[in-house]
Automatic annotation (TrEMBL):
Protein name listed in UniProt: Insulinase family protein
Coiled-coil residue windows: none
Listed Gene3D superfamilies: Metalloenzyme, LuxS/M16 peptidase-like
Organism the protein comes from: Novosphingobium beihaiensis
Residues in the signal sequence: 1-27
Biological classification of the source: Bacteria, Pseudomonadati, Pseudomonadota, Alphaproteobacteria, Sphingomonadales
Keyword DNA damage: no
Highest taxon above the source species: Bacteria
Length: 978
């Protein structure tokens, strides 16, 4: 079961579509799937549900389990979230651990080749075929290969009997009858090798070292799904076919389907398209994955085995210890899951103590423990430590001391009850929201259960098992489970350091052998004073709204208070148990003085943690115990944003937290100091790969080198002070306007009463600086000479970016949506051209940004990760595509391959209140945004080839672009920076 923890309003979708000016044909496309003339009979229910063999876990009755005569297993269920969608998963019980030495990488290579060509798909036509069905490549259509499985995934929108039949046909042909020709291999091999290259660098070296050290002597130590260059280049159609024939057989495959269709109909497609799949010979037994083995002669009480120190100058120091036990398949029953629940509590108690110690300042920035069953190869407990400074021995000692206390004495019942309350919420929320759980998640959960050889259970049953198990959560039981978590066959460690000589293998080994005295200082005191919302100071004097008017869109209303706060309210019964809250205030990036730019990043890390009213960081944790509350903070172009997902019963207190943050901020210095240390440690990691450099610098260059969009370097961070942090963010928190959005399952009258005590009681805000007073965001000047940045990663890695500035502002929002169609056309062409020309993986893509709150700053950007010598070819190819889009309009079929997936994306998104919330951000000060929602579907889907050609001519001209490349540094003394 192992469930230690959205959906959609069909009403909203129908209302939206009723208001969108679409043609009768489009209206028919978005209708619910028509029922077949004769409903098939559900045969699965005549068989024993194979998932629950030897288990007393209550069966999830929504799932129907069956098995075909050829041995293929399947599970189907009806789920209407999002409306019209059906999620299909085909799981093959074979991953990289099933390969022989000469086959390393074959499982993943096959994943690519199955998409290349098969019985019903001509070579290279799979992406286009699924796009015509409305499925977006990469999000709706995808596949993944792990060490233990290969899964083919498709979320089919607007599923009709005809499109379902076609989809099952295509997917069955891929899995049961791939071509696997020499031509297929020749075209896919460079793509897989490019994927290997793109995954290289420092992070990959750490991952490889971790595999080698932790799982020494087991296949997992050398069986990465990507394989090796030697084995992949030696692959032949015959050798790949041999691996396919061994593992791709019906008795080794499961088909999982969840979606908005009758289960009997879904079952009929499985039977129709997979029932005739037959293979010769008996099933090959799965290979042994081995067990962790301790070297001879080590102390069984502290069985420290191999330790390794790895030097990576650009990565922060990071130490991980693994305590390993043999993995054994279990009977997934209630007693087993009760044990997992106690394990979860034991880990949560320790992690809270470690976090308390880190927050107080000291030897480590962060530390945690967690148990995981790894690739059916080891039952492991991992201890992760990020030391502060060079004294790593002190950091490791301090973490081990907290753990030593946990294994020597039981926790208090108060500590247990606190973590149990958190788990209770985690299990209760899916019960409240089970009507809105998307079918894709349900299908993925079942795939995961198959992989770990366990079951699934309905949310009600999970909660019932948990609550009935609470008498088992005693101090002695938690102590016993804690001791088991930290005992094992062997203990191994990997320490990544920045400087050679900072540590040695032997020193690390010895440090793990050193005895430690239990540290009791971070236990939660039993007599700790309770923290209650009732005892917190009021925000101000409550005030009633001065107006409450309909917006004219759906049932959304706008409230206004005398202090200038405006609120958008939309109670929606179709989303039970979920309430989304957003608070927009102030002036965002534009309102920060450029000289204070480093405080922007630190605010994103530390502003929430610095506290409010009388609550510090620990108090915020305690007051939210047993509640579903959030506190996300984001800096946007022209405003700051607080957001959370909560529940109806927690809404009033959630609103208090947000309002008090604005008017009653607290300035605890420790979160600032911790954020500063973390940002300094993190900075060097950006230079380890081309993608890291882009993450660090691309926005900075796209915004005309505005320092407010730069990632602050250690020297800039060092100059920041707690006083400066308070100065910058006190000003930001005091500024208006303030807009509150509350969308979801809540009582309107109760929400207004809570608003009167919180946002209605705020002091009137100081207006954010006007546009004329602000330092406007600029855009880079066009240039054919690339900006050249460098990274410290592998010499065969590079990245290329070409960007065309566009615009911004709400008046251009209709055009911005049409630009999304243009970028999708560009993406399809770039994907085909670059993959075939350069043999890159699926990395090339094009995206459009259009800042609604600014009058400029938008762009169309194309980028790819590739090898350095291919960068000029990428620029040439992107220019050629841009010029062709200007010279020649797309074909009708090409346009349909883009607009149909976009239609489905918008239709599905519009079935959730979160979609409308994002569309209406800022609408209280810019009412035009309300009207623009009505045209959203037509804006994204109704166009002409000529319109696309005109947009291309307006924005994609040769003299409009600028470009950037990230190359490997040749001189190791060079600095990879902006």
């Amino acid at each position: 079961m192992k469930k230690i923890p959205r959906a959609a309003s069909s009403l909203a979708c129908l209302v939206l579509l009723a208001q969108v000016p679409v043609s009768p044909v489009l209206a028919q496309d978005t209708a619910a799937p028509a029922a077949p003339a004769a409903q098939p009979v559900l045969l699965a229910d005549t068989q024993e549900p194979w998932l629950y063999k030897n288990s007393d876990i209550p069966h999830d009755k929504a799932w129907h389990f069956g098995e075909l005569p050829n041995g293929l297993r399947y599970a189907v269920r009806k789920n209407g979230v999002p409306p019209g969608q059906v999620s299909i998963r085909i799981r093959v019980d074979a991953g990289s651990l099933y390969e022989t030495d000469s086959e390393r990488g074959y499982a993943h290579l096959l994943e690519h080749m199955l998409f290349r060509q098969s019985k019903y798909l001509a070579e290279g036509t799979a992406i286009a075929a699924f796009q015509r069905l409305g499925a977006t490549f990469g999000s709706d259509t995808n596949a993944q290969t792990t060490t233990t499985e290969t899964v083919f995934q498709l979320d089919l929108p607007n599923a009709t009997p005809a499109s379902l039949d076609e989809t099952f046909k295509l997917m069955s042909g891929m899995v049961t009858a791939p071509t696997l020709s020499a031509s297929n291999l020749k075209k896919d091999l460079p793509i897989v090798l490019a994927e290997m290259r793109e995954r290289g660098g420092a992070a990959k070296r750490v991952q490889n070292a971790m595999q080698e050290v932790f799982y020494a002597g087991q296949p997992l130590s050398e069986r990465e799904p990507i394989g090796t260059v030697a084995t992949l280049e030696a692959a032949t159609p015959q050798s790949v076919r041999a691996f396919y024939s061994r593992w791709y057989r019906p008795d080794n495959v499961a088909v999982i389907v969840a979606g908005d269709a009758d289960p009997a109909m879904l079952e009929s497609y499985v039977r129709k398209w997979f029932g005739d799949w037959h293979v010769q010979g008996p099933k090959t037994p799965a290979p042994s994955f081995g067990d962790p083995v301790a070297p001879k002669g080590i102390d069984p009480k502290n069985p420290v085995g191999e330790t390794r120190v790895l030097v990576e100058p650009d990565l922060p120091s990071s130490l991980m210890v693994a305590i390993l036990r043999p993995w054994r398949q279990v009977n997934d029953n209630i007693a087993y899951n009760q044990g997992l629940m106690i394990d979860a509590i034991a880990q949560a108690v320790i992690n809270r103590r470690l976090e308390t110690k880190a927050r107080a300042g000291g030897s480590f920035l962060s530390a945690s423990v967690n148990q995981d069953d790894v690739s059916r190869s080891a039952d492991a407990t991992f201890i992760s430590v990020t030391p502060l400074g060079d004294d790593w021995k002190a950091a490791l000692h301090d973490v081990r001391a907290v753990i030593a206390d946990a294994v020597s004495r039981p926790p208090t019942q108060e500590e247990i009850d606190r973590e149990a309350a958190e788990l209770d919420v985690a299990f209760q929320v899916p019960v409240e929201q089970q009507r809105i759980l998307p079918g894709s998640k349900l299908a993925d959960d079942l795939v995961n259960a198959l992989d770990i050889r366990e079951t699934v259970a309905a949310p009600d049953d999970v909660l019932k098992i948990f609550r009935s198990s609470k008498p088992l959560f005693t101090p002695q039981a938690v102590l016993e489970h804690t001791r088991k978590l930290f005992s094992g066959t062997v203990k191994r460690a990997l320490f990544t350091v920045q400087k050679k000589g900072m540590a040695t293998d032997a020193a690390l080994h010895q440090a793990l052998l050193e005895p430690v005295k239990p540290d009791q200082s971070v236990r939660m005191a039993a007599e700790a004073a309770p923290v209650s919302f009732d005892k917190l100071p009021p925000v101000g004097t409550p005030a009633e709204p001065v107006s409450d008017v309909p917006t004219g869109l759906l049932d959304i209303e706008e409230l206004a208070f005398a202090n200038g706060v405006k609120v958008l309210l939309w109670p929606v019964a179709e989303e039970p148990g979920r309430v989304m809250v957003k608070v927009r205030f102030g002036g965002g990036y534009r309102s920060i003085d450029p000289k204070d730019a480093p405080y922007i990043a630190l605010g994103q890390y530390a502003l929430v943690g610095s506290g409010l009213a009388t609550l510090g960081q620990e108090d915020l944790d305690r007051i939210a115990t047993g509640r579903k509350m959030g506190f996300d903070f984001d800096v946007q172009d022209a405003n700051f944003e607080l957001s959370a997902e909560t529940r109806p019963q927690d809404l009033a207190d959630q609103l208090y937290l947000f309002a008090a943050k604005l008017d009653l901020p607290k300035w605890d210095v420790n979160p600032f100091l911790r954020a500063k240390a973390a940002a300094k440690i993190q900075y060097d990691t950006y230079a380890t790969s081309p993608q890291g450099v882009l993450n660090r610098d691309l926005q900075f260059y796209q915004r005309g080198k505005d320092p407010r969009f730069a990632t602050p370097d250690p020297a800039e961070l060092e100059k920041t002070t707690p006083e400066g942090f308070k100065r910058v963010w006190s000003k930001a928190l005091s500024q208006g306007p303030v807009e509150v959005q509350i969308f979801g399952d809540f009582d309107k009258a109760a929400a207004i009463k809570a608003l009167e005590k919180t946002f209605g009681a705020l002091k009137r805000r100081t207006p954010a600086p006007s546009t004329s007073e602000l330092t406007e965001v600029t855009v880079p000047k066009p240039s054919n000479t690339p900006v050249v940045l460098h990274h410290h990663g592998d010499p065969d890695q590079a990245a290329a970016v070409i960007s065309w500035p566009t615009g911004g502002g709400s008046l251009g929002i209709h055009e911005s949506r049409q630009l999304e169609i243009l970028t999708q056309l560009f993406t399809n062409r770039l994907l085909d051209a670059v993959r075939e020309k350069l043999g890159v993986s699926y990395a090339p893509y094009v995206f459009s940004t259009w800042p609604v709150d600014l009058q400029q700053g938008g762009s169309i950007t194309a980028m790819a990760q590739l090898d350095p010598k291919s960068v000029p070819v990428f620029f040439q190819t992107a220019d050629e595509i841009a010029q062709d889009l200007i010279a020649n309009p797309p074909t009708a079929d090409e346009l349909e391959r883009v607009t149909e997936p976009l239609r489905q994306q918008v239709t599905r998104a519009a079935s959730s209140t979160s979609f409308f919330m994002s569309q209406l951000e800022g609408a209280t000060s810019d009412p035009a945004r309300i009207g623009s929602v009505r045209s959203v579907l037509s804006d994204y889907t109704v166009t002409t080839p000529e319109k696309m050609q005109q947009l291309a001519a307006r924005y994609l001209g040769q003299n409009n672009s600028w470009r950037l490349e990230v190359m490997p540094e040749k001189d190791k003394g060079a600095v990879a920076s902006r």
